[in-house]
Specification:
The chain has 4 helices and 14 strands. The radius of gyration is 36 Å and the shape is elongated. It has a 10-stranded antiparallel beta barrel. A two-stranded antiparallel ribbon has the order 2-3. Helices cover about 5% and strands about 50% of the residues.
Length: about 450
Amino acid sequence: MKNLIVLLIVALTGVSCLGVVAAQELLIAPPGGDVGGMIPELAMPPMPEPVLDGDQEVVEGYAEPNSDEHYVTTPYSDSWETGESTEQLEPYIADEYQMYQEDIPVLESTGTWFRRGFWYTEVDAVIFNHKFNRDGVPIMFQPTGQTVGPFGPGVATNQLRVNGSKPGAQAAPRLTLGRFLFRDHKNRDHVGEFTIFGGGEWTQQARLDANPNNDLGTDFLLVPTAIDEGNTSFDNATSSQFRYDSWFNSFELNYHVKERMGRDHVEMEPSGRWVRRAGRSISRSFMAGVRYFELNEDFVWTASGITFPIMPNIPSADGSTDIHTENDMIGTQLGFSWFVENARWSGGVRAKGGMFVNLVDLRVITDVPTEDGLVSSDTALEADEISFIGEAALIGKWHLRPNFSLRAGLELLFLTSTAIAPAQSRGAFIPSGPVDVASNGDTTYLGGSIGFEGYW
């Protein structure tokens, strides 16, 4: 009878040829064990003391049970060739092979032990800080005194400013659902996946009240000339405040080609024990897909206690402007990843990006008090732009199980040529409303993520 180990290898080879997705077959469990560990061991049971019939010869080199000596199965006696009374020795018969400490390498490679399953999901909580302008947007100020700087005299002011660099951090959940399609001849997985990302809302608000206790004795607020461009605005207000909200949603459909880990290797420890170890591998993936990304923003700016110095008999009034922008971006993208894979952990980088058609919608509603009463305008505009969306991440994974891993990373999301709501305030005070859309804004999201991935 041939060696059972050789027969087992032949049987597994035959099973692997069945079905379109043969690379996703279940593991062969070791005798008396299970396949729950990261790298299962296929240990042989202790060799029993041989039971000999009649004039059967003792195997040369056979060791006593429970001894530390290696036992050699070559050469074997002629009685084995005839099949006489060899049932208890058959598991240990090998043709010209020597086995050490009863251990042999398992028949499953880490390259197929990880990422087992037809479906997979990735769930992350991404905490982003939203940045659109390093200097921010000043919308009101109060002159408070004179200053002398390196460029000459100036005016000290209290300012009401939309903070463009640190408006606050918010969490945006991300869910990916993928399906294994097939394995190609280069041992690469081809998968399709769908990703939903977004839901977080970045909000900031601030208020400025005029304080007469200053060197100039001013008790009013002014709108910068760069904002109202000489038009009637919220000048001479005693108080002003704003609220700025920004949120995005993203939907992706991608096709991935993913490499797997390489083959494992077998090492003999100084004690003579053979062990199997996962070889460190570099795995890459490439993707292509389509994406829809929407970025919506609201900017509500109000001023109260607006007076008219030329006509002081007119009571003070309030003004407001409400700006809403929508950026609907759709296009294609390409991406790649590069990971160092180990038995228990992996780490690497991932990046993707593409060009998108940006369909911009703008609506501005403004109420400005004047000596003749309240002047209102309601303007809606549209614009088309070509925008770029890019993402990059540095990710580390810890494999709790072959089909379940924890992950964390640093992430960057970058958008160009978008309509930022506070930037539209420059046209809010034109009596007929803004004449164009300021769609040259860049938006950056920088933060970290934590989540998990699982296969089934």
